[in-house]
């Protein structure tokens, strides 16, 4: 039987794991080397995001920037860390939230000028948009690209897309903005947005998984672990979304581009849709790692997310003849 999985933000990225271990001991050289060796905007975006989440509670990036004040990667990480701290402050209702937000916005704007071809500064600005749920800032209420979509930070999304078309994190940040705004129709708007983004994405794009995230959010807000809501996952549209993500993303994208959150959401959707043999293939790709979302929303005790994962994995492997 496969081993009991663990949560690791680096997932299958061994080089990122090494840099994270160094970062947690207060050192930045491995992070510097990793980012210097990173190729492609997709990997760059992902690695800087994970590193920032680990660095936000430390002074490691500030030490790096003090040592190398003209380093563009250090400036990018500085903006990333500022954004992460502002978002955490908002979640914790910290009294310095607005101050941290403005500091993060300034850092992102500065690095956008220093690294004009990098999508990450624009992803940072998109992430900060959720701190403006009333859409008071003009850049957060731009008209949408087509009818049926709400006003929002479309200009920021466009700028990220110019540098890295169909950037995965940029679209997830747009979803977070839609969840945050005060519209009573925000979940329906999120559904339309995810469908629009997936429909316009090329084969192998991770955006084909985006509707599965919205489906999890709808389930979570609908009362979550209520067993009656299991019908949510076997509905025809849910099965169709799961199959589309399987065929358009999982089977076409290089394995190195399979992010752990996307794999977990796809396995969860296929399992919920009773497509067990297909789900078993995705569980095999997940390997020894898992992510608490979406599994933790299927149990009243979120600490048991790994148990839900194991039950689903065992059921799918059994159906596929692997047990």
Short description, anyone?
The protein is mostly helical and 323 residues long.
Termini distance? 7 Å
Task: Output the number of helix runs.
Answer: 17
Largest sheet entry: none
Helix proportion range: 55-70%
- What percentage of amino acids are in beta strands? under 5%
Order of helices and strands: HHHHHHHHHHHHHHHHH
For the CA atoms, what is the radius of gyration?
A: 20 Å
Number of strands: 0
Low-confidence stretches: none
State mean pLDDT (0 to 100 scale).
94
Protein name: DUF4034 domain-containing protein
Give an account of the 3D structure.
The protein has 323 residues and is mostly helical. The protein has a domain at 201-323. The protein has helices spanning 14-24, 29-37, 41-55, 60-67, 72-91, 97-114, 120-129, 154-163, 168-180, 186-199, 210-221, 231-234, 236-250, 260-272, 276-286, 292-295, 305-319. Helix 3 (41-55) crosses helix 5 (72-91) and helix 6 runs antiparallel to helix 7 (120-129). The model has no long low-confidence stretch (mean pLDDT 94).
């Amino acid at each position: 039987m496969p081993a009991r999985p663990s949560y690791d933000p680096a997932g299958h990225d061994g080089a990122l794991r090494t840099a994270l271990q160094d970062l947690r001991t207060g050192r930045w050289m491995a992070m510097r080397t990793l980012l210097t060796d990173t190729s492609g905007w997709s990997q760059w975006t992902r690695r800087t995001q994970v590193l920032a989440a680990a660095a936000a509670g430390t002074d490691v990036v500030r030490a790096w920037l003090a040592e190398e004040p003209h380093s563009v990667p250090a400036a990018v990480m500085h903006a990333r860390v500022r954004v992460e701290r502002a978002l955490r402050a908002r979640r914790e209702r910290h009294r310095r939230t607005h101050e941290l937000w403005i500091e993060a916005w300034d850092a992102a704007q500065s690095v956008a000028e220093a690294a004009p071809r990098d999508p990450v500064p624009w992803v940072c600005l998109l992430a900060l948009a959720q701190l403006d749920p009333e859409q008071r800032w003009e850049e957060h209420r731009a008209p949408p690209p087509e009818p049926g979509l709400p006003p929002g930070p479309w200009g920021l999304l466009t700028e990220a897309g110019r540098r890295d078309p169909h950037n995965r994190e940029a679209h997830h940040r747009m979803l977070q903005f839609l969840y945050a705004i005060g519209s009573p129709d925000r979940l329906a708007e999120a559904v339309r947005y995810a469908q629009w983004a997936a429909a316009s994405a090329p084969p192998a794009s991770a955006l084909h998984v985006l509707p599965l995230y919205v489906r999890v959010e709808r389930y979570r807000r609908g009362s979550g672990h209520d067993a009656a809501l299991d019908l949510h996952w076997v509905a025809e549209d849910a099965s169709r979304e799961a199959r589309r993500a399987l065929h358009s993303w999982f089977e076409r994208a290089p394995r190195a581009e399979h992010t752990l959150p996307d794999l977990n959401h796809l396995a969860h959707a296929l399992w919920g849709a009773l497509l067990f043999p297909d789900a078993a293939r995705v569980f095999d790709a997940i390997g020894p790692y898992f992510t608490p979302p979406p599994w933790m929303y299927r149990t009243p005790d979120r600490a048991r997310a790994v148990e839900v994962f194991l039950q689903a994995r065992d059921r799918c492997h059994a159906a596929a003849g692997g047990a």
